[in-house]
Amino acid sequence: MTLADRIDALLPQTQCEQCGYHGCRPYAEAMARGDAAINQCPPGGAAGIARLAALLDVPVLPLDPERGIEKPRMLARIVEADCIGCTKCIQACPVDAIVGAAKLMHTVLADDCTGCELCVPACPVDCIVLEPMPPSQVDSPEHADASRIHFQRREARLAREQAQRDAELAARKAHVAASATTSNPVLAALARARAKQQGKPS
């Protein structure tokens, strides 16, 4: 297990980005490199900072106030009667804990919610409320592990979708360029000349 793995295991896996990094793992990697301080995680609070200090053998620090304040962990709940089905909360959720479809009611899977609160500012109609997270969920290593896996799966899916969009865009551009070249004698001649200069058959 790498140092980043050991640090990541101590983080709450909210994936809330309050630390200034895109999720808990990037923050853990930054700490392992010495690029980030141990006091940038409000959800982990003082107890989390103490655990990180012990692991890294560094002094305990107070929570950086610029990152937020320590407060009880919360769960998001959608007031379904007010939901307009815009999907903005689904797009904001880092662990795919919100289900629904465009123009249809959405709902939060409470067992999967990390309390990151990223969905709240994303909602244009303020139909998301926060309720206390059960203590058993706050302190559950199993919940943290599941949240880490959900985040990793979402990141992998988004990367695949972006790669597919990039490939489709490149293919369309190539098709347009080829069509323009074949329909324009001047461009076709220039293309043949370039190919000849590069030692390629036209």
Q: Describe it for me?
A:
It is a single chain. The chain is mainly alpha-helical and 202 residues long. It folds into 3 domains: 65 residues, Electron transport complex subunit B, putative Fe-S cluster (3-methyladenine DNA Glycosylase II, Chain A, domain 3, Orthogonal Bundle); 65 residues, Alpha-Beta Plaits (2-Layer Sandwich); 57 residues. Helix content is 48%, strand content 7%. The chain has 8 helices and 4 strands; from the N terminus they run H-H-H-E-H-E-E-H-E-H-H-H. A hairpin with a 7-residue loop joins strand 2 and strand 3. Helix 7 crosses helix 8. The model has no long low-confidence stretch (mean pLDDT 93).
Which features characterize this protein?
202 residues, mainly alpha, 3-methyladenine DNA Glycosylase II, Chain A, domain 3, Alpha-Beta Plaits, 3 domains, two-stranded antiparallel ribbon, two-stranded antiparallel sheet, 8 helices, 4 strands
